[in-house]
Amino acid sequence: MARSKQPSVQAGRRSVLLAASAAAALPLARPAIAQERKLVVGVVLPLSGTFADQGRNNEEGIKTFQKIHGTKVGNVTVETVMRDDQGPGSGDLSRRLTQELIQRSRAEIILGYSFTPNALSAASLLTEAKKPGIIINAATSIITERSPYFARVSMTLPQLASSLGQWAARNGIKTVFTIVSDYGPGLDAETWFTKAFEAGGGKVVGGARTPVAAMDYSPFLQRAIEAKPEAVFGFNPGGDVSVAFMKQTKERGLSQAGIKLLVTGDVVDDNLIPAMGDALDGVISALHYQVELDNPANRRFLAGFREVAGANATPSYRTVQAYDGMALIYHALQATGGKTDADSIMNAIKGARIDSPRGPFTIDPATRDIVQNIYIRRGQQKDGRWANIAFETIEGVKDPAK
Amino acid sequence: MRLIRIGAGLPLLLAAVASFFLFPEYLSLLNTLFILAIFALAYDLLQGHAGVVSLGHAVFFGMGAYTAAVLAAHGVTEPVVGLLAALLLSGLLALLLTRIVVVGNDLTRLLVTLGIGFLMLEAANQARWLTGGADGMSDFTMGPVLGLFRFDFAGETAFWYSLAALVLVYAFLWRLTTSPFGLALRGIRENVRRMPAIGAPVRRHLATAYTISGGIAGLAGALLAQTSNFASLDMLGFERSAEVMMMATLGGTGSIPGVVLGAVGFSYLKDALSAMSPKYWHLGIGLVLMLSVFVLRGGIAGGVSALLRRLRGRG
């Protein structure tokens, strides 16, 4: 629109008048400024049911971002439309919601996907519709390979598990017993921890796979204690399940038996700490974000987050992932000068470098997956509260599975 | 009475066809509504006609979905072939399960079908090499229907494909339930002890009904897997089993057009409410279900026939 007017300015007075009257006839067009426009970001998240808290964490991240950075990038106003995909396994629903967001709500970018199946099922649709899909949670390695329009700002489970495996081997731990939840991500965690740990000279002496929603871990912990390893590696799907797991490691006396506990950091998510209490004592974990990180982006994020969610709220790493999803979209819009076609956006996303609350990260141009710092943390008390305190940073970790 | 019920199919079909032109942006939603209507019809053959309740009917739905998905993943990409295979395999599974389902009373049946549901869910979860486990299956591509119509982004092909299946299922079940066999099923529903006395083979009738019902439920599952390019544990989970019971009850169990309306109405309501309030829409669903029990005795079909009776009484 704005561009088509330029030649007419040179063409003569008459066409100028024509253009001016045409512009006046359009109620919203302002010839002096580049045309205002709206970009709809469709959001697909679990907002009801068992996993609603994950969706809420993500949603707060999106809100926090727009609270701090506004809703406008240049002359593009970014608007979000949220839909509820009700949790894992409803891939047919998440695919349909994606389609409806694109067709009915005119979404040009889709943000979300908390669970692997829900992202996978939307892959071919996004490819066909040529719309970028920004994954802000689902962590199975393979997802980004399923569509050239996928990019991920969360993490992959192999990133965490293999960083932890390397660290354990480097720090003199010789034998480990693994306890993982019996489903895709759990098996991923087991595989990649074992691979990295044994490559570093360690040995996995045994393992247990627990039902995904198990709340009783005592038999598995008993087996672990009897196997007499130097450490136990644990993974489970977060939330109440992980709180139960952590408390029972304490009750069964893992540390009294002289066994260290290693977990992927999502198990001891910052916003679960109040429920875990001193079960966190001495637990080693690997994650890409913790509240205690000291950098300008995190200070800004925390201030904004507390305005959105309340002064005493603690963000989850998922909050940051959603925040960064929005950051990536804003970054792309700036880089394209407001162009919103999928290929321009994807080109801007590939190789993007963002200063995130979690520290700097980049999007690998080849895989469109995130390359980020992984922090090795220890559970300890700080100012009278339990926290995950980072004591080692592994910089620029790529997804080892690709 | 009979004339009215025959007549209800035609306006429903006309409404479905009209919706294609009136709501071109809602085709993928309409597609799922048709599929759920088929599933509800399959279930209601048991609950509404034979009086046999089940809390595990999604097992057959999921069986059909996985059949279609696994076939497509192994190179059989013609949708109609997948559909027929799903119909046969789910029907076969139902036939195998009849022995333990048909014996006993309603309460034991609820428990047994519930148990079968959990068993199948865990079996599908463990058979990761075949089903993809908790990640589901999405790594397959469907071919064009009959080699002609490709599944498109807007869902036009899916719309007609599922509608065609719904029309066939509707007509078949209509014919079946008005046949002597259908009458026998109703006899079993009304008084299972008396039926043997008039020489009706109750077990065989129930087994037949269960097999047909399972097969059609599998067909619905296959349609969903094919048109959404996805199959997962969710499709054979308890929630889907419970939902189909709600849809049949809301529509008016025992009435074919009623069940179609119930399935379509319930699923549309779910979608509309969840779009309106992605967080609190369950509240709305709960209220509607409760109201429907108190206000619409006998579901939508019951409400309509009460209305018709009243009108006729005045005329």
Q: What would you say this structure looks like, in words?
A:
The complex is a heterodimer of chains A (402) and B (315). Chain A is of the alpha/beta class and 402 residues long. Helix content of chain A is 41%, strand content 24%. In chain A, the strands form two sheets. In chain A, strands 7, 8, 9, 10, 11, 12, 13, 14 and 15 form a nine-stranded mixed β-sheet that branches. Chain A has a six-stranded mixed β-sheet with strand order 2-3-1-4-5-6, with helices on both faces. In chain A, helix 9 (239-251) links the parallel strand 9 and strand 10. Chain B has 315 residues and is mainly α. Chain B has one domain (2-237). Chain B has helices at 2-22, 27-50, 58-73, 79-102, 106-126, 128-131, 156-178, 180-190, 202-228, 238-251, 256-276, 281-295, 299-314. The longest helix of chain B is centred in the C-terminal third of the chain and has 27 residues, at 202-228. Chain B is globular. Chains A and B meet through strand 3, helix 4 and helix 5 of A and helix 2 and helix 9 of B.
CATH class of the largest domain in chain A: Alpha Beta
Q: Low-confidence spans of chain B: pLDDT under 50, at least 5 residues?
A: none
The average pLDDT score of chain A comes to 89
Number of domains of chain A: 2
What is the CATH superfamily classification of the largest domain in chain A? Response regulator
With helices defined by DSSP (H or I, 4 residues minimum), what is the helix count of chain B?
13
Largest sheet of chain A: 9 strands, mixed
Please give the most extensive interface between any two protein chains, plus how many residues each contributes.
A-B, 32 and 34 residues
Summarize the helix and strand pattern of chain B as letters.
HHHHHHHHHHHHH
Structural Rg of chain A:
24 Å
Taken from the alpha-carbon principal axes, the silhouette of chain A is globular
- Mean pLDDT of chain B, to the nearest integer, reads 90
Overall 3D shape of chain B? globular
Assembly type: heterodimer
Poorly predicted parts of chain A: 1-12, 16-32
Give the domain tally of chain B.
Answer: 1
